[in-house]
Specification:
The structure is a single chain. The protein has 141 residues and is an all-beta fold. It has one domain: Lipocalin. It has no helices and 10 strands. Strands 1-2-3-4-5-6-7-8-9-10 form a 10-stranded antiparallel β-barrel. The protein is globular and about 45 Å long. The protein starts with 19 loop residues before the first strand and ends with a strand.
Length: 141
């Protein structure tokens, strides 16, 4: 997938195309939900949870913010713990990617829209240890 590097003078819009309630259901009873508010006040607020059957395993508070006069950043708080910041490194009209090479895992976070679905991938900087999600609109197909 081609990416568009972010030039220093460009400040892209918040990715409003991510807004909504999204779900992934696995045949083995595994599931994942992700929620994003529409852009407002230079911020989008997100939440995610992953589990199997009736047992949640992981939850995360997230947000995408416009940094003062610079660009965008993805901020993640897995399990409600300490926040990790990932600056924007690439975007286009249907894709946004953030990276922080100093973070243990993940180091790269990418979201994109494809066929009415929200896709997400996390990995190390070199693309290894990748995990992917393919979310349908909640209540949809």
């Amino acid at each position: 997938m081609a990416t568009t590097p972010v030039a220093a003078q460009e400040i892209p819009a918040l990715p409003g195309w991510m807004a909504g309630a999204w779900q992934q259901e696995g045949a083995d009873g595994a599931w994942a939900d992700e929620y994003w508010t529409p852009p407002r006040g230079h911020m989008m607020i997100g939440a995610a949870r992953i589990g199997k059957g009736s047992a949640p395993a992981i939850f995360e508070h997230t947000r995408i913010v416009r940094k003062e006069g610079t660009s965008l950043a993805f901020i993640a708080q897995p399990g409600g713990g300490s926040a990790a910041e990932f600056p924007l490194v690439a975007y286009d009209g249907n894709m946004v990617e953030f990276a922080n090479p100093a973070h243990d895992y993940p180091q790269r976070i990418r979201y994109w829209r494809e066929n009415g679905r929200l896709r997400a991938r996390i990995s190390l900087m070199d693309g290894s240890k990748a995990q992917e999600w393919d979310y349908a609109p909640m209540g949809g197909s």
